[in-house]
Amino acid sequence: MSITNELVAHHTTLRQLYAQSEIDPKAFDEFTRHLIVHHTMEEKYFYDILKVIPEAEHDALEAVNEHHIIEMIIKDAGRKYSGRPGCAESVSDRQARK
């Protein structure tokens, strides 16, 4: 299977994990791990290729910008749940330890 097919198939997993995290904040950590890996792979293997195609360059740059916004939302959500009993460690806390 190609990386493109894998990324498209992974969208289903992301939707399921997101739905779980809305019900159970503990699932948010797993959702964010998948989301970070997913958008990193999109940027590395998909959008970088699109950037060199003149007709697709604008869309690729817009998608990378949207990913930056997603990262900011993840950090905000991680702060929201950070320190609450029974909630997963925030993404920003985990990244600070690296």
Q: How many domain regions?
A: 1
User: What gap, in angstroms, lies between the N and C termini?
Assistant: 32 Å
Give the CA-based shape: globular
Structure annotation, total helices: 4
Question: What's the structural blueprint in terms of helices and strands?
Answer:
Layout: H1 3-23, H2 28-51, H3 54-81, H4 91-97
Helix pairs in contact: 1-2, 2-3
Structural notes for this entry:
- The protein is mainly α and 98 residues long.
- It has one domain.
- The protein is built from four helices and no strands.
- The longest helix has 28 residues, at 54-81.
- The radius of gyration is 15 Å and the shape is globular.
Short description:
The protein is 82% helix and 0% strand.
Descriptive terms for the model:
single chain, 98 residues, 4 helices, 82% helix
